[in-house]
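During the first year of the project, the team set up a workflow for recording each protein of interest as an amino acid sequence followed immediately by a discrete structure-token representation. This format lets reviewers and collaborators read both layers of information side by side without switching files. As required by the reporting guidelines, we include two representative entries from the current panel. The first entry is reproduced here exactly as it appears in our internal archive.
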Amino acid sequence: MKVETPQILWNSEGDKGRNAPLYSIDMLESGISSDSSDVYTHVLVTAGNTNVINMWKVCFPPDHDAGSSSSSDVTTTIFQKQHKSLNNQIDYITSLTRHELSVNAVAFSPDGLHLATAGEAGNIVIWSVPIGKRGNGNGRHYWSTIGQESDLLVRIVSTHAEGVYDISWSADSKRFMVGTIDSLVLVYEDKYHASNVTSHEEDQKESDWQQVFRNGEHTSLVQGVAYDPLGAYLASMGSDRTVRVFPRKLQPKSRKKVLRPSNSPRTVSPPQDHQRMVARLMTESKLDIGKAKRITQKCTTDGTQVVKQRLFVDEANCESFFRRLTWTTDGAYLITPAALWHSDRSAPSFATYLFARHKFDEPCRVLPATDKPSVVVRSNPLLFELPESEAVSCKENSNPTGGSLPHRSIFAVLTLDSVLIYDTHHLEPLSVLSGLHYAGLTDCCWSRDGRNLIVSSSDGYMSIVNFAPGELGKVLEQPNLPETSSPAPPKVQERLVSLKIEVTIPPCEPGQAAVLEGPPAKRAKKTRIAPTLIATPSPQQQTQETTNLSKETERVGDAVTRLSLGGDGDKPPPKKKKRVQPLLVSN
């Protein structure tokens, strides 16, 4: 691991010639390094207490240089004068000046086509790659080639709010959520996302962002928001010492039947196809939000008395504008900063909480912090394998829904003066960095390969942390499972069957694996098909076959009913049973 603090005027405070406080940063892999065709560059966006957003091109050291150090190397901080060249190459690209007041939050969309920025003025500015420059899904590489602000498409989205503190994108880049100064949680959706994904480049339209959710349950500033990577939850955190988790509800599925030949091969799709199917379902379905789960306190018994303990610190003890929470990359945990842990016999101490998915009543793990509260948590974009000696069984790395996770997630926790690197496998931090800056830390971001971390501070400077390959552990590789199919059954007559697809969807109730019906085929013109007699079934066989088919359809319908993404106990009204009349094919 290697740390350096470049002494660069990242955001100039007017004509004073000094750095303005940095409030938010984000990074996107874009372009190829001029020195090597195998090394990608990154576009870094910095924003703070000015109305100007600066863009920088950052090239991290090659694999054989990252993290290497000798006895003569000294970590560079702002407390020392810089005598040697930087380990990371940094070049200025351009500035974006559409904002009127200071900018509090910047965030690239996961697909690399949009940059959302917002601040004290309350408006959200969406900077987008021009449609003609998106090049078959490679639009992210356009950012490293721009020369001026006019090279980007600009759309201003009005929130009708006082100001915005944080932004978080959905994994499909169709939606993003923001938290505002006047206690609002807002979600915006691209009206043309579905058509642009399936259309050719010349037929695509500019994104039109419309508000699809508005909530004002918080009683004070909303200082952090996090969109679930699996698309089932929205999380927000405010200075009112509460965390709210909003579950999504799926529309009840139709029990329509589709005509499928019985002699068609029954293939078993690999898990990757199932996950893509779930992601498509969460993207295409309407955003319907259920009742929020409010996390604020826990109750303990002291003898005969019930004692209520607050889980998060107040504004007096958290001297920061932000409480930026996050989800782990796999969506298994919600990680919240600014936590307050009450031990049995000692005074409460600062901590960071991990809440298991679907179980938000109390934290499943408590990570101790330093003498100052944590304010920002950012998850590494990659997953890592478990240590070899403990990969077989590990009680600490337990799955929220039971069992053991086959991997671990790594994340950075920022306090006001320290950086702590944790994972979901160990209780102690993997690394601790402190004393890097004069003022409090405000934000951080990981590179796409998970080996570089940039940390910003309100003193106007940033520190870059480079990890050597394998220093954080072995990256988890997803196996490519081949498709398997069962032998085709003997050819028989066509009959009406219910097409079901078994997928694991992220429900809001634990322990339920959902069975979803595939989308029904479009109704074609009815044509009469003359039945062909293959065999002469007896009336008893026809009755038994029809009964089994009805039971199968009922089981699928019950499984869909149990899929409660709303979390509020709403159930669709039971449907009346219909009597199925057996059809005699021939005598």
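The second entry, processed by the same pipeline in the following quarter, appears below.
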Amino acid sequence: GRGFAGNVSFLRVRSSPRQHHTTTLSNTLSMATGARWCWTLILAVSVAAVAWLCTALLQQQQQQQSSSLRGPLPEVAQPKLLAEHSDEFRRELVQVTDGVYSAVGFGVANSVLLVGTDGTVVVDTTETVESAREVKEAFSQVVDFKAKPIRAVIYTHNHVDHTLGIDGLLDLDAPIPDIYGQAQMQKQTNEVAEMSAILYARGMRQLATVLPPELQINVGVGKVYRMTPDTHVSLRMPNYVFENELWVNVSGLNLLLKHSPGETPDQLVVWIPEKRVLIPADNFYKSFPNLYAIRGTSHRDVLTWANSIDAMLQFDIEYLVPCHSRPIVGSAKVRQVLLNYRDAIKFVHDQTVYWTNRGKTPDQIVELVHLPQELAQAPELHEWYGHVAGSVRAIFAGYLGWFDGNPTNLRPLPPSQRAQRFSKLVGGVEKLFNETTAAFEEGDLHWVLELCDLLINNPDVPEKLRQATTDLKAKTLLKLAEHENNAPIRNYYVTFALELLGKLSLDGTPPQQAQPVMRRTATYDVFTCICTNLNAKRSMNVWSTALFVFPDRNEAVKLELRGGVAYHHMAPTDSGDPSNADVGVAVSIDYEQFVDLTLKLQSPAKLYALGKMKILNGTVLGLATFTSYFDNVATGVNPE
């Protein structure tokens, strides 16, 4: 992602060192294509030995995932304004107008029901099958689905909180309804597979998903992200896609689906002219927009986002039905909030570019760009979710990349050397720790975080002092969280603090959640991720090729190791012929079984013994050797 490197010390950074330093799937629907290569388990000639080892590792993984939280947990006071903001997400089926209902508070995102003459349309499906079932139960209070079944589902974009609940809404014994999405949705779903592990960890921090209920408040645009180890997800890709716009008529409902890139490149808005209803996807919600997500995201085209909102203003809207937060009613009010939203985005963009062109660095621009008072006081622009400072940094990086223009930063000292020299400058690590403790007592908390990092990064710090510093950093984060009204930052502080204290570990998405998404990910993109897990040091002198044939997809992938580099190509499915000297080892396996192997839902020894995984060329030991050059990574579904 651009703008935030993951260090909590830089979430609220100010420019003066001693004076309080201040700072979709495009990206989401991503999941566990981090591909835990279970094939590395095939290290024994004996099938029985391999089976025993697979079973032991599977049990260990399940134990780890069922014991993430370790108590007792600290008490953390809730910031008053953020706690009050939770009322925006109180659970309710809101009737917007005749035949239009918004299910608010059932998941992080809303699900919208459109009732036609002989059927219904659902826009977005929430994040889990369980929450979607509760949505359907609420919808059933106002419509008889036997008389008016779901004829179509519309995804506003690829983020998982809008797509992964679909099977909870459908009658799976009946024909699957048409599913609509913008043409880039599949690409966005596959695109960030190689970053899924870190996006999962950072996403869980941003959304507080792994926190116990007593430490959760809300996520800024929803109450609780309900994806937990006990919930289930589903994914069905659209069978109807379009580029710019598409008029459809479903059960007498005349709908315009219009491409409206913003938070993600595949956003679409839904316009219902006869009812004067606009569903704006995630291009509008009641918060300053998330122009950059601290979980990590590729560059969001902020100027295009503003232009998409400007295009919405061309509709004669009476009812604005966001996919996060409550509906807004009244043409004058709708127009004003959209104007405010457009102008706020445009202001932050233009002023960041203005100061960038005058040679300012991101740290300096953050101090210069603040919303005009009229916009800053607008309720829909409070920084519950996005924040201006983080947006400034992301816009700068989106245009100019990582280098801020200061030549000092072209060849910076490594963090360890900088930490050592700073400690020496102030008289040693003990004195620096005492200064850090004093700053904490004075309430200079952002400065405490920076000093803690200097101690933690210093290899000369004794282990006992390092642990004391780590505990102080965690204590500081919890203290900051008590006064932080930006939900993602507050949640990141609390979750990271619990990790530092050893109370919490992020073990990766439960396999049953990753499985349905991974099964619908393009084969090529899965192997893109596998390549990023190559241990370059271990494979530096290795030149070898393996072929993986997937009969059910009529696909094959050739994976080459070339002296520390992994490269893959789609290959002819018959290239696993034993006469093919170019391939050292070849395996045939159905893609769904391959997914289950990577997620440790199946034992490779069992599949091999049952003939569901066949060695076409080479040996089992050869396969084990080849795959041993790849490290394991934690699997993860990318959240909103």
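For the second entry, the following points were noted during internal review. The radius of gyration is 26 Å. The first strand starts at residue 92 and ends at 97. Both points are flagged for discussion at the upcoming steering committee meeting.
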